[in-house]
């Protein structure tokens, strides 16, 4: 066990060097954290390379989603959260391990025994970005059955802005 810790610390030093001197920083970080999870009885989810699961003999489980340098994790035993938090702070000098409240445009609100996932804040930011925050609200953006025609005489639009808006709408859906 002692040599494993030393090896992990050595990798941490290599990772630290990689963070400041190499262009492959994400690869170095992922390699280090991947090694850590696999060496600590986590199983990498076969269809998603960034999800790790640890299942205990007692039936307790712990799932971690790794996104760049952020973790999102859940568990069915609150003691596992405390243990994970302590290890991550010690091994990787992490800070700010707390409940998630906003991630990639998604708000997570917890009330008593319920969890709500909403995108209200993100939608407001999108409306503001495209200067349409004062538009009338409708259930459907396009009338059903309307045939769209090419209008060469109309105002030209910025294709980058249009593609950005379409991408954001797809993300929201």
Compact description:
The chain is of the alpha+beta class and 173 residues long. The chain has 2 domains: 97 residues, no CATH class; 53 residues, no CATH class. It is built from 5 helices and 7 strands; from the N terminus they run ααββββαβββαα.
Topology:
Blueprint: H1 2-21, H2 25-39, E1 43-44, E2 51-55, E3 61-67, E4 70-75, H3 78-92, E5 102-103, E6 106-111, E7 114-118, H4 120-129, H5 159-172
Antiparallel strand pairs: 1-2, 2-3, 3-4, 5-6, 6-7
Helix pairs in contact: 1-2
Structure, described:
With 173 residues, the chain is an alpha+beta fold. The protein folds into two domains: 97 residues, no CATH class; 53 residues, no CATH class. Helix content is 43%, strand content 19%. The protein has five helices and seven strands. Strands 1-2-3-4 form a four-stranded antiparallel β-sheet, covered by helices on one side. Helix 1 packs antiparallel against helix 2. It is elongated and about 65 Å long.
């Amino acid at each position: 066990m002692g040599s494993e810790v030393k090896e992990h610390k050595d990798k941490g030093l290599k990772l630290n060097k990689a963070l400041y001197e190499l262009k492959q920083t994400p690869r170095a970080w992922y390699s280090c954290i991947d090694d850590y999870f696999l060496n600590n009885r986590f199983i990498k989810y076969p269809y998603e390379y960034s999800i790790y699961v640890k299942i205990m003999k007692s039936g307790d489980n712990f799932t971690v989603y790794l996104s760049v340098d952020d973790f999102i994790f859940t568990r069915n035993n609150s003691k596992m959260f405390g243990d994970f938090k302590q290890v991550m702070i010690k091994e990787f000098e992490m800070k700010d391990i707390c409940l998630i409240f906003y991630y990639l445009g998604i708000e997570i609100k917890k009330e008593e025994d319920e969890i709500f996932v909403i995108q209200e804040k993100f939608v407001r930011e999108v409306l503001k970005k495209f200067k349409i925050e004062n538009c009338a609200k409708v259930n459907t953006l396009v009338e059903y059955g309307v045939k769209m025609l090419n209008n060469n005489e109309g105002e030209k639009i910025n294709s980058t802005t249009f593609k950005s808006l379409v991408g954001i709408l797809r993300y929201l859906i």
